[in-house]
Amino acid sequence: MASVSAVALLLLLSQFSFCFDLSRQDTGVVAKYLQLAHDNIGSTTWSKASSHYPGSGKYKCNVFVADLVTLAGGRVPQIHFFKWSPIGTGEWCNPRSKYMKQVKCWQHQSTYKIGDVACFRGHMGFVTGVNLTTSANEFEIVRNDWGFRAGQNPVFWRWNC
User: Fold this and answer.
1) Distance CA 122, CA 6 (A)
2) Domains and CATH numbers, the chain
3) Organism's domain of life (predicted)?
4) Alpha-carbon distance 158 to 128, whole Å?
């Protein structure tokens, strides 16, 4: 499990990703973030009480996704170009998000595959199995059927680079 300081350092370095050629294909990104999600089940780094960005008292499911995609070598849309500021669930849950279109590797999908990001009504996580997701809830990282329960119809985004 990555420590908070290691995550913070890698995220700081990722702010300078515009200095590197990110146009190359990287088929391992999805496998890497899925492994990181599995490795972090039970972690409280992204809990509401954690001081991890954006601070204690804040839900961090979008930051969990952004951190792991970034650590895996991928990119997530940012609100600001001058600092690390990943978009929130409002944009991930919007199939026509202008922010999602800024990172061409993310494509909206009508059906899911393992490795997709699922978002529904202010919560999001990785699809990590058949009708299973891994996400940051209020207390820890969990793997369960969130997103596939009766009445839930999430938006799916797929990394295609």
Assistant:
1) 27
2) 4-12+26-159 (3.90.1720.10)
3) Eukaryota
4) 13
pLDDT one digit per residue (tens) for the chain, 161 residues = 454 444 544 444 344 333 233 333 345 999 999 999 999 999 999 999 999 999 999 999 999 999 999 999 999 999 998 898 999 999 999 999 999 999 999 999 999 999 999 999 999 999 999 999 999 999 999 999 999 999 999 999 999 99
First and final C-alpha spacing in the chain: 26
pTM over 0.90: no
Which one-letter amino acid corresponds to residue 56? Answer: S
For residue 42, the one-letter residue type is G
- Residue 21 CB partners (closer than 8 Å, separation 6+): none
DSSP-based three-state secondary structure for 30: helix
